[in-house]
Each structure stands twice: as structure tokens, then as C-alpha cells.
Amino acid sequence: MLYNHVIADILFQICDKNHNYCVKYNVGKDKLPFALLKKFEEYESKACENMSGSRLDRHKLASCICGAIIEIKPLVGYNGAQIPKNANETLALYIGLNVIKAFMMYDILDNIPLEKRYEMHKYLRNNFDMQLPSLDNNICDSQEYRQNIVNALYWSHYECNISQKECFHYDIWAYSKIFYHLELYNKEYLKKCCQEFIKSQPII
Questions:
Q1: Taking CA 101 as the corner, what is the angle to CA 61 and CA 182, rounded to the nearest 5 degrees?
Q2: pLDDT, tens only, 157-192
Q3: Among 131, 132, 153, which residue's Cα sits nearest to residue 141?
Q4: Which of 84, 74, 182, 199 is nearest to 133 (CA)?
């Protein structure tokens, strides 16, 4: 469900807007959706080792999907075109954010009368975008929050001199916490977007 409604949608938007990008069809012997699923399940299993329950909350779910995207690297250059070296890390961040957005919208829509739910879902999907703290909110950093996170994701893997292969040291728990704080940061934005919809289309 998340692949069809979140991941595939974002991949389509990227490739539609920039023809230098394309998406891997196969990863090893697997088609992309199944390769992502397998990698996600690896991260999910690691997370569950340190949990009392067996079900991921939305923030750990977003974190595991983010890690799977980084490792699978679905975006490549079309016909050998050069794309930014951190393109997949940027993709991973925004897919994680959109997973959180989907859950936040679900929480709101669960309390909306059924006859208005579809219209409100469509409105929120098109008008509510997850926000990141602006540069003005930084204490002493001269680089934007988004770039800092993308850099950190990119630096979470590197070529290992011993094994002669790429090593991934992605921290599920750290990024789960980041997604938790970004949800809190966006609650007011979502509330405002809901109020704007209600003003234009009263639900009572």
C-alpha cells in the first residue's frame, strides 16, 4: 500500500519533472517493489529486536522505509545521465516525510463525516506539505535543515576498505526520533490547512 500510494507517486513526479532521472526496474533478481520490501523487512527486523512489541509505530516505519530507500538506491541517471550524488538520500527523506503525512491525515480524517472524507483527503493531499524548520530557526548553522539531514543520510554509508564494498550504518532509532519531531513541528500546519478546508466547505 505504501509503495503504491507514497513511493511510486513520488518516483513518478521526479521522473516526470526531470528527464535525467529514471527508476531501476530490477535490483538483483527482484523487481524494485519487492527489493524494497525485502530491505524494509530487514530494517523492521532490526528495529523489533529492541522493542517490547512487534508492531512499528509510524516514526519507526518511516525510518525503516527511509533506510531501505538509501540502500536500494532506486533513482539512477537516464541513459547514463549524471544525477546528484545524494539524489536517493533526498528521495528517502521525502518518502519518510510523506509516510508521516499519510498517518497525520488519517488521524484527522478518522473524525470527519464520511460524506466529506474524500473531499477533505483530496484537499489535504494537494495543499498540506510537510514543512522543515527554516534557516531562521537555526541557532548558529548556516546550512538549511533539509541539506543537513540529506548530508547525514548520505554519510551513513561509505566504501569499506576492508570488505571492498559499501557499508551502511543507518541509525533506525535516530531517524525515527527525527520523524517524530517533524510530525510535532507540522501539527500546526496541518491544523491550519484543515481550518481552511472547513471554511470553504463546512462539514456540519
A1: 80
A2: 988 777 778 888 999 999 999 999 999 999 999 999
A3: 132
A4: 182
